[in-house]
Amino acid sequence: FQQRLQEVREGIHFVITATSRPKRPGEVDGKDYFFVTKEQFLSMVNNDELLEYALVYGDYKGIPKQQ
User: DSSP assignment of 19-44, as one string?
Assistant: First the structure.
């Protein structure tokens, strides 16, 4: 899906979000998400490293500024 969309629309960039939830079978760190601990995520918040973030069902999700 992503590849086809990028072929049709130039300039589209897909971001990889950071999450504090555990990795599920088959997921790849750095491809599906950046998997971090809750402590690491909160450090990212405190260091202003995220564009936005939210607490979702007890786990944090956010977009790193490096994206």
Answer: E-SPPPTT--BTTTBEE--HHHHHHH
